[in-house]
Give the backbone structure.
Amino acid sequence: MVKDGLPGRPGPVIEASGLVKRYGGTSALAGVDLAAAGSVLGVLGPNGAGKTTAIRILTTLTRPDAGSASVGGHDVVTDGDAVRRLIGVTAQDATLDDMLTGRRNLVMLGGLGGMTRRRARARASELLAQVELAGAANRVLRGYSGGMGG
């Protein structure tokens, strides 16, 4: 675990200064400052505190209206590709479509991650084999048991 930054780059891995995000007349973030080092970051707080909005900005899914943020020294707005190469994020809830097959879900997620369709299909096959679900790849997720990932 990296305690004080990334190898070759000491200091905070995640930095934010004055982050502001508004949705219409509602301020989701009103000047958030953050500096965090380490390999795992948990964000806790009451409903409506802006946790999801801040994470969406730090993971390059949403642009801030004001302020700045960087991950691993890369600006989340101007160098999003580099940020996405450094991070791993898991959602609170599964983000799979239970009406699609396991294979189609993986291909869709690969496409969302920037893979070509051909590469996403190949990677889906690799992953299905790796987790021993190749035999169930073409079944809709709704038919999977809980232990299968559905």
Q: What stands out?
A: Helices lie at 51-58, 80-86, 102-112, 117-130. Residues 15 and 35 are 5 Å apart (CA to CA). The chain has two domains: 5-86, 102-148.
